[in-house]
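Q: Two folds, back to back.
A: First:
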Amino acid sequence: MAEVIQPRLTVGDTSWFQRDRFGLFIHWGLYALPARHEWVKQIEQIPDEVYDRYFRHFDPDLYDPSIWAEAASGAGMRYFVITTKHHEGFCLWDSGLTDYKATNTPCGRDLIAPMVEAFRGREMKVGFYHSLIDWHHPDFVIDDVHAMRNHPDRAKLNESRNQSHYADYLHGQVRELLTKYGKVDVLFYDFSYPPHKGRKDWDSEMLLKMTRELQPGIVVNDRLDLMDVEGGWDVKTPEQFMPRDWVCVDGQPVVWETCQTFSGSWGYHRDEATWKSVEQLVQMLIGCVSRGGNLLLNVGPTGRGEFDERALDRLAGMGEWMKRHSRSIHGCTQAPKEFRCPEDCRLTYNPETKRLYVHVLTWPFVQVHLDALAGKVEYAQLLNDASEVRMSEPAGHQTELGGFASDTLTLQLPVVKPNVTVPVVELFLK
């Protein structure tokens, strides 16, 4: 019996999370208008009175979340996470605790409610990102990461700021989000950065307690600075890099998800050109699942409320692959250690169906060799078209001259690579 790695148990319900594997991240706010990075206010140290021009001109007149949901669902994504508020402090919903919100811009409406409805209509789980940081709030103490970090009157400005009052505001806004929109499946807090700001500044333990009470089963990430607290987090979230193996904490495998961008920016960036190809993105998704993790892939909508053509092209390309290969992603995880991965391949495994998936990243000449699998596979097929892949065990001259063990299973592949981004062989184990 193949032994599948079981990650550390979580307080939140991560059972669906570990099945669905692929989600959409959305970074959207006033920063879509300058269109040169979501941290533009901080990077360029833009004062509030100048940044307010984006507030006065925020009018996403082409916003139709049903189009977003269709693109995400078509790409094979099963859940989404939207920035309700990013570090700039601007809120996409009609918060009763601030005037700095979408309803007070030319947009004039709550942007979260129709988004939640549209994605739920595609049977996708709902996630909220919420920034712990707020460069607009008058009680948020200015530190070395703040947009006003180099203000000549920083010390004097901080005299009237009260971080505990800001924490009350933070908790109040989270309460609104968790009581206005029905079931919320994920809360992605972002982020703590001790020694500048950490658990005391957010009153993190009380914030987490309220989060779990208002939304039982909600999946919470690891950025509240509560890594050492029992139940203080559910999911590890490595950002903008690919772990080499299943993510572990204190030597124990944990539920994990890497968040990644199409290019170098989370918010819409008009001039950023280092966009990943569909092939790179598909391989990234495969790589995550082959290590027992999830991929949360980001789109930054434009100031008019659209996914631009570059994002739609990548989502469509991934959807074309997922249409025929999602069986190797959804419901799958890292293959048991007894299944050794062939050269230039990645393995995933579905423990319910007992099927092993061989993702062939570099198309070989005719054969792929699987060590220690001879006699253990009942049937093999290419997943894209369900065409049979013939199997054989090594002949005598192969074991003598080719370095093949007697228990090697060889897959006989076509000479020409199938016309798909990454071909996958589905193995039905005995």
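A: Second:
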Amino acid sequence: MFSRMARRSDEIQITKTSVDALTKAQNELVALDKRADAMADAAVPAGTRRAYEFELACFASWCVRHGVRPMPAEPRTIRSYLFELAEKGRALEEVPSGKAKGPMSYGSLMRALGAICRSHRRGGHPSPWKHPLIEETRNTLGVLKGTAPKKQKHDLGTHGEALFLQMCDQIKDDLRGARDRAMFLVGWEGGGRRRSEITAAHVEHFETIEGGIRWRIPRSKTDQTGKELVVPLTPSADERYCPVYNLRRWLELSKIESGPVFRGVDTNTGEVMAAALAPEGVARRVQHYVKLLELDPTNFGGHSLRSGFITTAHKAGRKEADIMQATGHRSLKQMHGYIRRAGLVEESAARGLIDEALARRAPKKPEEK
């Protein structure tokens, strides 16, 4: 009897040890899962993450107002939500911050749907994106709203009216002007960089090499894996438009030795701030100068530098592969979009057709005897 009790005690002890080991393993898996979630969140650009969070907050508020379940949401619920956004826009009480706007565009509707689908995947539920009812909804909204992209910003190139050079000519020769001139020239000459890439530039990313400066861009919109893009900055004969000279001049005047290159400048004291200029700041400075040219500033923005570089390089006869290497584009189709918009008039198949027809129609002059 004592031996049976001993064996039973051993079995209980083994079972308890097994349960403890299993619990420990489960806790470790939960911790690993949380770390994986945190790393996945960190890999998503901050702007995209904020947009997703905003969309989910609005959707959750809408579900509460209508008494329906947000997760997992029924496809009919999502369809009703999207159609309400398409017809009326968001209700004021569903917007966590800011003001509610009117009916939403197709692109905005797809962003809202994308955020909902992503939350389902992360919650362990099937994504509703390819559900037949949601696919039908996407197609219907595409027909009703149209899928045309939003109005594109005008480019700042060096051909034709040479708006980029005209803009540079408007810049004053003070500390803020030195920053703006360097910022525009580096962003343009560096392959038409996005405003987020310009403001993310650090002193440590630039290296003096023979014949110019090497600029390392650790992360970009088309490269979230951090493979790094390297672009050259080459000197120009005229110092007013030389990215190398003006970058060095800005760093010397601002006394910046490390960290963000392009920073805010206090308009009252002239003090250079420690933090990097916000990406929106690039767009605002572009708009400031084009307004001095008596142009509509709403037609221009930070992306005008990128489109201006691409269209200028194309018109100058640069190879497509070289342009893509400079800009970091992976899709030839996407880059062609810039070129098509720039050549809408110059390369139009309709250009000159009426004049040619009129020339053929004109009566011939009688031959002189």
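Q: And?
A: The radius of gyration is 29 Å.
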